[in-house]
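YM 10:42: Cellobiose phosphorylase sequence, as discussed on the call
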Amino acid sequence: MNQKGTGWIFNGNNGDFSLKQPDRSSFLYFPLVNEGGMMSSVSPKLHGQVTSGHNTFLTPPLSVEDLHNSRASRNFWVYVEGKGAWSAAGNSARQNAKMYGDEADNAVLEAGLLWHRVTRESRELGIRAVITSYVPAGNDKVELMKVVLTNSSAEETTITPTAAVPLYARSADDLRDHRHVTSLLNRIYTSAHGVEVQPALSFDERGHRVNHTSYGVFGAAEGGGQPVGFFPVQEEFIGEGGSLDWPEAVVMNLEPQVGAGGGVHKEGYEALGGLRFATVALQPGQSISYVVLLAIGNDRIDISALMEKYGSIDAFDNRLQENKSFWADKVNTVEFHTSDPAADQWMKWVTLQPVLRRLYGNSFLPYHDYGRGGRGWRDLWQDCLALLIMEPADVRSLLLNNYAGVRIDGSNATIIGQQPGEFIADRNNIPRVWMDHGAWPFLTTMLYLDQSGDLDFLFEQQSYFRDSFMARCRERDTSWDVSAGSTLQTMNGEQYSGTILEHILLQNLVPFFNVGEHNNILLEGADWNDGLDMAAQRGESVTFTSFYASNLLDLSRLLRTLKEYKGLEILELAEEITLLLDSLHVAVDYESVSAKLALLDRYYAAAPNKVSGRRAELAVEKVADDLAHKAEWIFEHLRRSEWIQSGQGDGWFNGYYNNDSERVEGEFENNVRMTLTGQVFPLLGHAASPEQIPQIIAAVERNLYDEKIGYRLNSNFGGIQQNLGRAFGFAFGHKENGAMFSHMTVMYGNALYKRGYVKEGRKVLDSLYSLSANFELSRMYPGIPEYINEQGRGMYTYLTGSASWMLLTMVTEVFGVKGKLGDLLLQPKLMKEQFDKEGQASIKTIFAERVLEVVYVSTSRADYGEYQIHSAMLNGAEVTLQRVSEGVVIPRSLLTALPEGEVHLLRVELV
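YM 10:58: structure's back
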């Protein structure tokens, strides 16, 4: 992997980077966040938003287009005596007009984990500003800015600084509807350090209720100097005919509306955190610093405590170092060393992304201008993939809690609360089932079992979710109301709980019978590709039929493992679920769609949003046989009925049927229709036979690979496909219609590594890195975007599940550090060019609650497939290796005997 372009460059070795003239690239933004709920974004001109949730925006909510369209931003104005007004943030009408000329400011952006700094200098005015921003680690909802102004001219310069941050102070719902009416609710207070707003009421979807949240902007000059006045009302600050990027109060250097000490109360206007600081004369080279705090409080803000904690230069600098250490410690739990240092540092930002997704959900960054916060069902499980590597101690309880969202019909809750394991009944009368949802939990849980060896987890008890929807949202339970609670009950009104293993079996057995006319699992509301949302009646997802089949086979193997390792002979399941294990009583003809659907209807009737509470005892071996039989039937069916043999000598799997029950993929008269998703899941699991894999790879390269944007999610189908999904209404090459969608590209790479096609898998991962890091095209900071569009631009940066899969692939496939029922399995798949000049490649990661640095040494410079593990030394002592077909195993007991809190060196010789 090679960093391309002339954009950002890494500085040092901890992911810090810099970028010259950042404001000449559109749509750039950077996340600033903490675990206390403060969620900010900041652009090179300090645009962005500050919020703690959908109903509590300190600054106006925005989408990515507002980064250049809106005049509202964090701003820090400097009036230079005799020369006029200048924005230290670069956000003034005067500077914007000169951005492309010789009089443009010189600007350099620097950023790291998670801090942001812009240095900006006006040669015309002879002044330089350095603005550093971050959200301090911890639970305080506060964002901090430090502004350092320096006289860069050869003569004394007199300046008058003014901080100006619009205080929106309400719900995103009020941005258009009721924008003025809600400003009438504002109660604006001024004090010695700033401006605070606490609206009297909140107008949002929750109703008109008394508001307790407050919002404020506070500041101090170095040495503790308080502001000398305030501009708390926006319209008075900008003046008649003025604007936020050319305000009368600054341009004319007007006296503040409120004097030093504040104490003035205003009501009923759009508010501004306008802080005027004392006029000061700077000698050549002399600097002065200011601290600005943006805070959200659950009630009136304790300003003195806030300023004591954050409101000085020393406090700012100390908290900044704490913040850098906090994020470095979190990210550096996983570190990579290869022949490409830039790629290794890029991976630090990829490693950070799953944490950002956990904190932001899918909202609250400018590209993610959809959604009202929170995460979806799929996110819960995919984010855990990264947590298993980064924060494994927390994962067991998260997984256990997540299973409380499973319904007895095999579907799941779709509204997820703020607390772990909190699922909320859907009362909006828009029921919807994503057919893939049941497939993901077992994949994540199996990774946990392999990493931990905690087979007892499968026998933990957990409740089931229920609301008014039944039979996968095709029926309503008219007897249910919210007062009945959202947990499944028995016929006598007691809460029913089942084992985690029971939940997993249910999620994978119900879909097996829920098939369409071609005997593949129904698409329902959509699968992983949410854009395939218009084929709910007759659409089928061949793609996820293969995923469920692989789960069924792996579940069968897991049951046999439980018998071998735990001596499990009998499995207890809710008696209703035994209907789905048809071979144990009356076997169903799997070739018959009607027979499958009839059995499913019998199951729904037996478990109509309630269960008997009785449990059946089943022989583990027979259940395992039933699951394996179902899986093998699907594999044979897919290879026979859904394989497309191309006239070009290659082939691929059809992935879907549309709502007219027509096959979606194949070679048509005017075009070739192919999806990447339809190939990934047969490859990831067991559906694609060894003979089919080379043909799939060739077909993907021919039909989906584009050197400019990488591996497209699909070829150009032509037309809007209203019988399949909204995705095809998007222009081809954008988002889910033919863009390089990172999530599926990474999963394709992962699948190729899993199936032993390492060279091909590396090409896939390398294309994603190269495209993302090519700033001239991608125009994004380090990390993986959700997708890359037709022009090569990275879109929807930071919040994407692809980061979890990239991290997982690098750790478990490329470096081959993975679990095997708790033991450490080493199975490196490194190419020779990934080793450094000394023939080494290494990874630091957590396994068995110990920090390991695994160093692979390849002095022979052999390529993958030509080397094998010869020996291993753990902290200088030779390890006896247990060789298995996949690689070598090191017993968990050997690792848990090591002291905690240290980095343990595992040196592995490859010959």
